[in-house]
Structure formats: structure tokens, C-alpha cells
Batch of 2 targets.
Target 1
Amino acid sequence: MCNLRQTYILSALAVACHAASAQSVFAPTIGEYNWSTTVNQLGMRGVHSRGILGQGVIVGILDTGINSAHPEFSNNSRVLAGFNAVDGSSDVSDAMGHGTHVSGIIGAPGNGTGMYGVAPAANLLMVKVFNGSTASSSAINRGLDYAVSRGARVVNMSLGANSPTGDASLRQAASGNNTVIVVAAGNESARNPSWPARYAKEGWANGTIVAVGAVDANKRLASFSNRAGDTAAFFLVAPGVNIISSYSTGYAYMTGTSMATPAVSGAAALVSGYWPYLRANQVAAILLNTADDLGAPGVDAVYGRGMLNVNRALSPIGRYTYRIATGDRVVVSLSGQRVLSSQPHVTTPSAFEGLRTDVFDEYGRNFTSDEGSTISMRSVMTVDSILGRADRLLDAANQVLGNGARLMRLQSRQTHTPQADPWNHIKQSDASMVSLQLASGDVVSAGDGGLAGMSLGLMGSRMATRLSGAEGLLGNALLGFAPKHQFATWATPIGHSWTGRVGVARAHADNSAAGDVNVMELTYEDSVKAINISAAQLTEQGMLGGYSQQHLGLNQQTGSTGVTVSGAWALATHWTLAGAYGITQTSAPAANGMLLGGTSVQSQSYGLGLIRSDNWRDDDRLSMTLNAPLRARTGSLNYSVVTGVNEQGEPVYGTHLVNLASGAQEWIAETRYATRLTSGATLSVAAAWRINPDNESKAPSQLALGARYNLSF
């Protein structure tokens, strides 16, 4: 014979709330939440606000019956017609109040009355197995058979006995693996659970039975609760002390493992309802493996697996598996460090809006992952970016060598002060360049820190001194995909007015997303004008600055070629006009991960600049530039996505096309003034206005103002 598993009622009936019929809409009040002891202690408000309510799941409750006149259950369509396993009738009236209390913890609706349960939208199937305060083994078997036959995905058994009993129907239910059986551990302060909870450890249970002990509001095992003992691997604890729930026609506090058990049953209903294709032992394993460890580390003989954690149970476990139509699967560990992803810099972040796919955790549960938001990054114009690298060149040294050659050395030092500790953690980064001009006219340059642009293009010509302030728009656009690079260049005269130049820029070792660039150039210059044609080849592990984890496909090596034509014209003694136009072509990416393929990408950039020298001081520079950075004009990526699952949990495939062509052109209007105050001091002042940032028409414009005073010692 089995007995009830509550220890005592702590109070008389609480004040009954006003009569109200149960509503179909989940709309609890704050007061109702505060009265929902189990929901409150489990921290489940966020779960229910996401609409995870246990919809469509039948929870069989083997107990003393239910009071159908209670405000939580009256006119509630989710309270199904029950079964009396004692006499075979449909009479499931509750003379003792125990079954009504248990039912409220599982599935009282959020209807503005009293309290609500862990699975407030679950269907409650009361099966009365008690005759008075005891239940026979035969009644339990009949009741369990009935609940399973009616499609119960979860069965709550807040009952127990001191000896083995009622296993016949448990064996049959376990073999079917469609029903999670949740059983109270018992209230005898024993080392092991009572029966039938203790059957959970048996091999025939097939992992479908969970034994439940009780803890108080401080997550300490209740003094009366049986321990996990030899059933520790299948044992959970849940709130079971001073639990408010429905009772008679009002509400009462009750305590016992009987009150902890329906908390786990409600959680099982939530998991089963959200992923209806899961087998019973999978649902049980999810609850067990996501519990909060209590007591001794790991599975222990007191708390077993630990405290039920519904939020973790509804979150992905272990890893994400991305499935694609080609049959490939990409696995990403959820515990590993995620790769910072970015869209190709020539497109706009909104291009990836709507790129979503269902992914699967180690239990095969599908979760919708917004991959578009993962890969989309918006950039912000900073004062440092508009003041420019050249304004930080503090140390410059020129030396005439004995053979007629000239050696020039430049050194830039930049100091960063982290906000967290501005006094003790000063980090200094260096960029340097050495240039050797031979008597033959050849010029060899090398350096690091991303300064290749100072020896390439028009900045490597004799007009470079007139172009200070416009260097950002004159260089080959592909150099921007190799930031902080090391470089080497060689220039040689070709006839009277022509110069040929080659260069290499290699990405810095700590920037795995950057690429390597090879450059070939031809420059014409005379006393008043200069023209440069620059051809470059970019090889990168990514795509035009875009990169990602393997599943998004932008972790592959791609190649781009680009040609930039730039020119400068000395309009007058102090005025210089400069401009540039660039076009690049990126080869189509290969199928990789979710990426089924794509087309080649064509991008272009252009800009104009006007520079005036010797304005208010000798050798000062005032520049005004209008620059349209590199922007994709054509190109697309085609992704395989999972749009959902069928009844068996198998993926339903679709495709998502990302159009890389940007609808808007980014513009940067900049004014900058730079002057040398003394031999060791320089001053730079800059203002820039950025329109359509990241080629995004709906993005707000950005304004940056800044000044820098440099003093060398």
C-alpha cells in the first residue's frame, strides 16, 4: 500500500480569492506571481514570459482527486475528465485536498486568481488511486495504465511505500519510453527513497523515472525528506517546504516531497511541450543533467543530481549542431570560446537580417539561432581614426650617407590608457618605417604598424609633402584589409618621369582575420601633377574583412584583386587637388558550412581632396576631403537554413539569400589642420562627418571632433 507524501499542513485554509473561471490566456498578476511559491523559488518568470507554458501536454496525476469547483479549475478546459482507478468510475472528487494541492503546483492557470503552476497551460488528467489515505498496488497499476493510454507525457506520483510495490505498470510504461514518471522520494528522513521512486535506478526503468526529494527556500534538504542514496543518479530536489497551492476552494501552505514532485512534473511538461518529439528518457536526462549541484561536488547520496533548474533545462546543452541540405553537419561547442564574427566590410550589417536557422543541441532539441545578428557589426568613427597615423610620427631622422644615399627613419608611439585602471596600466604600441634612397634613385622602404601607405601610391612620390591630410583616400583600398601589417616596398625610376614600385604587406600575427596584400604600381609625375596606377592582390582568411565560425562559411581563404587610380594636381603655390577611384573584384566563395555558395563581389571606392599649405604658419596643412569608402556593387551569399522540424524532430530545410550589394553609399567629409609648433611639438585638429555609416541608409550620421598635441623628448 502507498501513502500520501505530504508531512503536514502548516496553516488552515488561506483566504480564498474571489471566484473566477480559469482563463485560456496566461495573464497572471504580480500578486499571483508572489503567491506562486514554486514558480517563485525556481525563478521561472522569464520562462513563462517566453510563452513556454506546457501547451498540449497531458500530465497524469495519480492522487486523491481534484476539486473541480476550485477557482483555478472551475470551467477550465485543460482539466480533463478523470478516472477513478479504485472503483472504475469517473468520480475524482477530492475529499482530502492533497490531489488539488498537487494539481495547482503543476498546472494552475495564470488567470488573476490565487497562484499559478509550473506548467500553467498543461492539460491535467486526474486519476484517483487513493481510497482514503492509502492506495493499493492494483489501483496504482490501473491508474498508470489509464494515464499512459490517454497519452500522458508526464505522470506525477506524490505517493510512496516502505517496500517494493506497483512496478508492473511502471515496467510497461518505461518500455514504451513515451511517459516521464516523477515520483516522491518519501518523508521518512531515510537514506534511500521509498518505492516506487526507488525503482528509478533499475535498468528496466530505462531512465524514464525520476525520484524527487524536498528542499526549503534556502535550498537545504528538508529534515523529513528521504535522501538520494542508491538512486542518486536519478534523483532531483525541488521546493517542498511551505508551498502555497490550491486546496479545497481556497489556498493552503503544505510541506512534503509530495509538493516537490509536481515541480519536477511541471518542468517535464514544459520540456515535452516545447520539443514534443523527445523520448521520455531524454526529457528525464535533460532535467537531471541541468540541475544545480548541491551538497558534495557531483552526484552525491544526499541531493543526487541536485536542484531542479528549469531555466537551464530549457537552454541548449553541450553543443550546437548545424545541419545543412548537403548532409553535412557542423558542430560548435557551447562551452568553447566563440569566434567574433563580422560581415564583409564592403556591405552593410542589415544585409544579414533574417539569416536565422534552427540548430540542435546534444539532445537533438531545435533552437532558433539568429546568425544574422551574430555576424553583423556596426563600426563607430573615433577621434583616433580621423586624426590619422601620420600625425603621430613624433621621431623623424634624416641622414645623408657617404655614397650619396639618404636614410630616413620614422617612429610613431601611441599610448593607450585602459579605463579600468588609468594609473597603473599604460600600454604603448609602436609603428616604424625606414626608407633608404640610393644614389641610383631607387628607394627601399620597410616597417611595421600598418605604415605601408606612406611609401606606396602618391605618398611615395615627390608630391607626398603636399598631400598630407589626404592620404586616407589615395592608397589602394585593399591595404585596409591588412591592418597593423609589416611591409616592404621597392621603387625604381623608369625614364625621366616614371617610377615603378612593388610592395608586400603581411598581416600582423595577432590579427587572424586580416589578409596579405601584394602591390604593383606605376607612377607618373612632373612639376605640377602626379598620377598613380596601383594594382593589388589580397589573400585573406575571410572575405573582405568578414569572418566567422565554420558554420557560417566565412572562415575560408578568398582572393581579391583591385586597381586604384589616383592623381594630384598642384593648382597654385599653396593649393593641391587630389582624387582617387578604385575597383575590386573578389572571387566567389566556395560552399562551406551553411554557405551553399555565392557569386563574385565587385566593389568600388572614390574620393576627392583639397589641400592648402602655408596657411598661417610655414609648412602647415589644411585639408578638406570627401571620401566614399569601398562598397559592394554586386555579390550575394546563399545559405542553407533549417526553418523548423517535423513531428519526428527532423529538420525542414530552406535557403536564405544575402544580397551583399549595399543600397546606400557611405560618405565621410573631413577637415583637418596640422602644424609643427616647434622642432619637437606638433598640433593636429580634425572634424569629420560620416553619412550612411557602414553603407546603411537607416543608420544615424556620426560626427567626430578631436585635437592632438604631440611632444617628443
Target 2
Amino acid sequence: MHDDRTTLVRGRWVIVQPDGQPEPHVLADAAVAVRNGVILEVGAYEGLRIEHADATVIGDGTAAVIPGLINAHHHSNAVTHIQHGIEDGVLEPWILGNPRIRYMDPRLRVLVAAGRLLQTGVTSVVDMASVGAADQAGHDDLLARLHAYEESGLRGRLAGGVSFHSRLVHREDAAFVASLPAGLRAKVQRRYLDADRGSEDGYLDIVEDLIRVAKDMKRTEAWYGPPGPQWVGDDLMVRIADAAARHDVGIQTHVQESFYERLEAERALGRSMTAHLKALGVLSPRMSFAHAVWSTEADIELLAETGAAISHNPSSNLRLRSGIAPLNALRVAGVTVGLGMDGTTIGDDEDMFAEMRLAHRLHRTTRIGGPAPTIAETFAMTTTSGAKLLREEGRLGRLAPGLAADMVLVDLTRITWPYVAPEAEPLALLVERAKQGDVQTVLVDGDVVLDAGLPTRFDFLAAAEELGSRLRETQVDTEFAALYTELRPHVEAWYAAWPAPELEPWSVFNSRV
């Protein structure tokens, strides 16, 4: 519960963006006045201190104060694939090996993941969380994650999902299994295709129950998270869109992430997946696509027309050999683009500042005057654009009166050591030099949820140690690991045999913008 007392959050630099202004600007030696979880005003510290003489002050005036960062697409795994011994690879064969990950308690995995997100200044996250089946176990898993987000103090948008189709290869499971050697065929059939995933009705019931539970929570929401259109089918995608509109919640799904996802839509549907979803009538501002690397110019026009948003995940796209998304084209077209870490950052460290830097530098084209995102545009992906993806642009993403008091204090000691020129732009310094370890304090709704680098709502170190202890006692599924090792070359050969048209390099596509 909030009280009526005022808090002043003081900074050497405060990054503000008043309503109606297209870009943020910097106030020096300033503060943010907060009451009941909402920003009252932003201005010079001395004036606010006189006006609010009895206010509690957070910060000594040496840190930078920025809006809470929004991670637009994530998988809150707590322990990364690399830590599980799973190396990066092309998406399609790589993802089939995910059952090699040892079981993690859903509450602990979310708490540890949430702690790491808070440590990098993230105050809101969309977590796409797939479970094995639409059954009681799947329901209980997602429910535990939902409660863990509320416990953490982070704003969690839990997008739960189940895959019902394309369990082996995109849309061609029967033909693929028939191509396998007889002995392998039987094992693959039993492990992948005969497994009971529950029903589509069961999935919709699960998410509806999560939405009901979340209505009594302060910061947590349940969304629909179909893993991908090819994994759930057209009928379920339409039913999800209808249900999301009825309950006024979001939908996030993976679309056109990989080269082979682009090919499979054209092989099966004769058009891009974006065009197909538009024809189904499911695109709207409540829909966001993770990745969309292989979007065409026509796809981008459809996204702009319908208001559907994109989470750009540059690290994951590079690590899983998916390519480089057409960010410049998306930006020029006016598509809402947030930034997501996807649980697969370039340094395997879940550092949101590093993700910003990668996005900023990856999309600068080669010619003078050619397209390149500005510092402000890059920062916006994690703030104002991320808020729009959440359909929260009137409440999150900026430090301005009337908005939620989500903010981050970034220690400037390392960033400015041993010298920084007085003419250096503070926002550029933050985007280009800040790191996860520089975050000292995080507030959500004016509540301190990270202090001195550690979460305040739960014992982060104890949760991490308990998770690690349980994992050390959990045996790997050696039978599945052996099956995957035998199966993977056949999956790779299947996709390698697909006819692939000559496609325009994204560097050329982006340079034309």
C-alpha cells in the first residue's frame, strides 16, 4: 500500500520526456517527486526540496535517473542454455533440443530471472513461457510463475503457450517421420508425436484462469503466448485473438524469426506469415511479434497499417543465425518496435544496456547520410516504444507528471571515470557506456524493488542458491539426449533440402530506406 507522503528521487542527470515532446532531454541536479506511486512533478532538486520539505529523498545527486526499462520479449530461464550445456545453433534443430534442459521449479526460475532483470534496470517484461501440455501440470506451472512475478515487484506480462502442431519440422511432421530410418522413426514418433499436449480448449481455459487470477494482482498480467502460428494453427490463432480482445489483454508470438520460417509460410501458404495473419484478421495493436527478422516491405506496411508491434531481439537473432532484422525500414514505416533480450543476449549475461548498444550499432548503414538509429531512437525502444507495445504508453516509459513512478538510478562512477567532458551528452554516455553492474536502485510504482544492487521483495541470493542446488541434484534425461543427437542430422538435412530463393541481403534493404 502507498501512503500520502512524498518521495524525491534525486539525480545528477534526470532523463525526462514531457508529454508531446518527441525526444527525451536531460535535467541537471534535478529530482522526480513521487506520491502514491505516481510522478507528481519533475524539476530542479532545490526547488522541489523546498516545496516538499518533509519528503524522503532517494539518491545523493550523483547518479543518473532514467525511466524503467521495458524488456519487450523474454524467456525467463534463470539459467541460460549455455549454462545447461546447450550451444547456439540454427533455430529449428536447436529448439528441438530444449528438453535437454533440466527441470527448474517455476517459482524459483522466475524469481532468479526477475532479480537479474531488475539488476539491469528492467521494470517491465513480456515473458513468453511455453509449457509441455494444456493440462493440470501446465496450468500449475504457469500459475506459479504468475505469482512469482507478483512476488518479485517487477511488472510481469506472462504470455503462456503450448505447441500443438509442427512438433518436429514446420508443417511436415508426417513426411519427415516417414523419411527416417525405421528404428529412429519409432522412437521419434513416441517421444515427439505421441505425447499428449492436451486440447486447444484446455489451453484457452488455462489462460483465462490466469487472467482471472491476475486481476487481483497489482503489477502482473496474463497474456496469450502462442509459440508461433505454425505451432498452434489458424483456428486457435483466431480464437486467441477473439479471447484477447474479450479480456483486453495482449498476445505475443514468434513470427518470421528464421530463414526457414519465412520459407515454410511461402511453401505452405503461398504468402508471408504476416500477410496470412492479416487475412485471418488477428493483427491489432494488442498483438506483438517476437523477431520478425524476415519481414518484407509488404509485411512492414501491414504492421504499420494494423498497429501490430515488433520486439527486436538482435542478440538472439545473431546467436541463432536468424539474421538481422530490418530495423531501419520498420522505424521509417512507423511500426512500434520494442527491444527484447529473449533470454539469449550476446554476452549471455542479460544486460539490457548491452542489448541497446548492439541494436544501436548493428543497424548503422555504410554510406554518409544513410539510415542509422539515433541514440534517442535506440533508447526509445526500451522506454516509450516498449510502453506502446505493452499498450501502456499513457502510464509507462517516461518520467513525466501523471505516469507511474518506474525509474532506475544508474551509478555514474565507472561511466565517467577518470574523466568526462562537460559537453558529452548524458543520454549518449548512458546508452553507450552503462552496464548491468552500474544499476544501484530500481523503483516500480515508487516502491524500491532493488536497493544496492539486490532485490528487496525476496531473497535473490537464496533463491538462486536453492535453484542451483536443485539443479545439481537433477539428472539429465540421457535417453532424450541420445535421441536428439541421433535425430539432429536428419532435421538439418530436411531443411537443407528445401529449395531456397535468392533473397535480398538485409544490408541492401535497410540502405534503401
